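Final report, Chapter 2: Outcomes

The project's central promise was a pipeline that accepts a single protein chain and returns its three-dimensional structure in a standardized token representation, suitable for archiving and comparison. That pipeline is now operational. To close this chapter, we reproduce one record exactly as it appears in the project archive, with the input sequence first and the structure output second.
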Amino acid sequence: MDFRTELDMLGEKQVPANAYWGIHTQRAIENFSLSSRRVPLALIRAVAQVKKAAALANEELGFLPKDKACAIVAACDDVMDGSLSDAFPLDALQGGAGTSTNMNVNEVVANRAIEILGGKKGEYSLVHPLEHVNLHQSTNDVYPTALKIALIRELQRTSEAVAALQGAFQRKEKEFASIVKIGRSELQDAVPMTLGAEFSGFSEAISRDRWRIFKCEERLRVLNIGATAIGTGLGSPRDYIFLVIEKLRDLTGLGISRGENPVGETANADVFVEVSGILKAHAASLVKISGDLRLLNYLGEIRLPQLQAGSSIMPGKVNPVMLEAAIQVGLQVMANDGLVTETVSRGTLQINEFLPLLASAILESVEIMTAINLSLTEYIDGIKADEARCRYYFDRSRTIVTAFLPVIGYDRANGLLKEFDAAGCEDFRAFLTEKLGEEVVEKILAPHNLMALGYR
């Protein structure tokens, strides 16, 4: 392999000749070989978009020559369209508050811009990673700004996926509206309901999650771009500070704004805890609903889609694998929320040094949440009801007598239960029909009466 020699404040280092990255990235590769997880590409693309906005602002204000600015913009476009994805090899876990990632993007954009201008990689007299690509910026304003933009983009996809899942549950709610069954509390028979009503509980929970996720974009719209190292804007021209946010708003098409207190925006990352908490709430919903669907399938009241063989030793066994995957996704998101909370709380004084772990955790949560919601949507659409099984449990449940309390009273209901137990019968509905008459029983246990709001 051929190499080129690059120089920084620590000395010389060999960099692969064909690599778009430079010496800062090469040091980070060697320093942070910690996991198999790379910096999320969604974050890399967002950093490149910030660099593009900065280049446009600097060119308009006369701080960058037009040819250099145009080359930087074109290079940023190459990063954003994914054609240079292999040039971002850094581990997601890295020290320095994201400096390695910022420098990785600076160097890749610079070297690609150099090529566009007809030079060779490493000829930084044409386009310099720091003096041109990173002009009037710091990792501490670029990185959190890019993370918020990446999150907004990904959350928009998540919101759409959650909306699709809500629709799937609503379709089942309507399909199962006339199927009576026994409700359950504390894993014991409770009062009658319909299977449609049970699924309405699922759709309502997902509806709340959808609204929370849709609205949480608002928490991320306030940015600290232009704040440079600690929020004071030191080293950045006033005109640039106000122009770069306008350029970024135009490029992203998002309703973003500059923070009124850039020092506070730079020092604190609490907004990410809030957003992660919203994702955790949806994770809790998915875990709970997935557990319920597994139980209903075990009871035989619903039949889940069969996706794959469930055992290497038990022929014919089919497991609820998609629901098990959903539960695992939910648990991972809950664990990631703990990481987000810890990283935010451990920031010190004017910056948060632990944003790389935070970014990896929260972007993973959004990614896997989107994927599992899309997978579950198709899965839920494939659920079938076993009406006969629902009716079997319903007819044999002693707790359906609760529906008759407004007609026969508590004491009479207790008396009927004692008679039923003494008779050694199994079908309680048939017993009630014999004692109260078919017309009364059919009326009270009709699906629309069971789900009416009150008995009058």
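Archive annotation: The first strand starts at residue 3 and ends at 8.
This record, like all others produced under the grant, will remain available to the consortium after the project formally closes.
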